[in-house]
Design a protein that fits this description.
single chain, 421 residues, alpha/beta, 4-stranded mixed β-sheet, 14 helices, binds ligand EPZ
Length: 421
């Protein structure tokens, strides 16, 4: 297994980096190809661990898959096995996103329950309750969700919280349902808009994607398409923080600035210069950083997937910052590792209080989840001396060529086999 070694505080990052396609758009979009029998061509697909897992899942259901990264071709003509096995679902809970499409296409599905996750309980009760409201019979047997429904019916779905995965599963299922489905308090993430754009080009009738109320009028069938995946706003945000914490200046290309409004606002409040262009963002560190006060929210609020990275930004601020994690109940696993590097952070309930500026010292640290691992890389770039990040398989799930991209901008970072983990 590999580890990542960083010689920190080397030099400010400088240069240009191209952002990859979005993991959190590619995953539901690959699942959605189940709905449109035929040759679906997806471009700008990030070459990530999680994407490989969902592609394997499609292959198990019977799809023909061609991988020509960043192009992925999924021929879903001959699907015959509406099952998602535990072996795959346990590695990636987003595999639950095949549930809606499989039920809509086959009238039945057997999908393993996701099981536990480092950042929180993450139940799927809202997904199941919504499918039941659409007329599905649901049973939980031996760790699997078994769903039967001759044809899903349009329904009024009101989510108590704006769940991303729940909105995506219902959106996909409702495209082939009989009648109209309305989702209120829907999630509004850009990845949901991208999924709706794909479904609409397949022939679906959808209104309101990207807002809190979505209407879907079911149709008899959908047709295969070619679709380009949107840029990854979380990868982009991670690079923006990398520029700020190293005192550098970088330009991101192939990015959609409109997807990063809350992140840009917070960076500017902290005193970082952010210039928006057509498909580009330039970030320049301009002197001391100001403390932060932020709470994670559903889009368009501040994304929970940027919380850990902003904690490293706060470590460089002149004064005390407070970060509240309001989406997931256990998403501060990076804190004890940052404290091992000399950070001064205290946690009370869902709020972390960060003392800045903290001088970080390189150390051996352990990644615990995807975004926590990104924050440890950022801390390593800022720390004095050498940092070793273990369990980088977490990082590979969501960042494409991160080491190469950082190297190109002047970071002294490398990937080496690890004897430890
Ligand atoms: C998506 O997860 C993302 N994953 C996550 O990104 C992201 O952190 C999250 O949305 C929030 O933005 C993908 O898109 C693949 P939710 P998801 O359903 O869909 C509760 C990353 O780092 N809830 O919006 O699982 C849930 O427990 C990953 O790339 C229920 O209670 O998130 C949480 O507290 C990590 N019951 C809240 O809603 C349900 O049935 C939001 O979860 C569903 C959700």
């Amino acid at each position: 297994m590999d580890k990542i070694v960083i010689e920190g505080a080397a030099s400010p990052l400088r240069g240009t980096v191209t952002v990859s396609g979005a993991k959190n758009a590619a995953l539901p979009i690959i699942c959605a190809t189940i709905l449109a029998p035929g040759r679906n061509v997806l471009t700008n697909v990030p070459r990530l661990g999680d994407v490989r897992t969902v592609v394997k899942l499609l292959a198990i259901t019977g799809a023909d898959v061609e991988l020509r990264w960043p192009e992925v071709v999924l021929d879903t003509t001959e699907l015959d096995n509406p099952v998602a096995p535990y072996e795959l679902v346990k590695t990636m809970r987003a595999a639950i996103l095949v549930l809606g499409p499989l039920v809509a296409r086959f009238g039945r599905a057997k999908v393993s329950l996701p099981g536990g996750c480092a950042i929180g309980a993450r139940p799927i009760n809202l997904h199941l309750r919504a499918l039941e409201a659409m007329g599905a019979q649901i049973a939980i047997r031996r760790g699997y969700v078994e769903v039967e429904c001759e044809r899903l019916q349009g329904a009024q779905i009101a989510f108590p919280v704006p769940t991303v995965g729940g909105t995506e599963n219902v959106l996909m299922a409702a495209t082939l349902a009989e009648g109209v489905t309305t989702i209120s308090n829907a999630a509004q993430e850009p990845e949901i808009e991208d999924l709706a754009a794909l479904l609409t080009s397949m022939g679906a009738k959808i209104e309101g994607a990207g807002t809190s109320v979505i209407h879907i009028e079911g149709v008899e069938s959908l047709s295969p398409v070619t679709h380009r995946i949107i840029p990854d706003r979380i990868e982009a945000g991670t690079f923006m923080v990398a520029a700020a914490v190293t005192g550098g200046e970088i330009t991101l290309q192939g990015v959609e600035p409109a997807h990063l409004t809350a992140v840009v606002e917070r960076m500017r409040e902290a005193g970082v210069e952010v210039t928006l262009g057509e498909g580009a963002i330039t970030v320049a560190s301009r002197g001391p950083l100001a403390p932060l006060e932020l709470v994670t929210e559903a889009h368009p609020g501040f994304p929970t997937d940027m919380q850990a990275q902003f904690m490293v930004l706060a470590l460089g601020a002149q004064g005390q910052s407070r970060i509240t994690e309001a989406i997931f109940e256990n998403r501060f696993m990076h804190v004890p590792e940052l404290v091992r590097m000399g950070a001064r952070i205290q946690i009370a309930g869902r709020t972390a209080t960060i003392q800045g500026p903290s001088t970080l010292e390189g150390a051996t640290v352990m990644a615990t989840d995807l975004r926590a691992s990104a924050s440890l890389i950022l801390a390593g770039l800022r720390a004095r001396g050498t940092t070793e990040v273990l369990r980088v398989y977490h990082l590979d799930r969501g960042y494409e060529n991160l080491v190469e991209k950082l190297n190109k901008m002047g970071a002294r970072i490398r990937r080496v086999p690890s004897e430890l983990y």
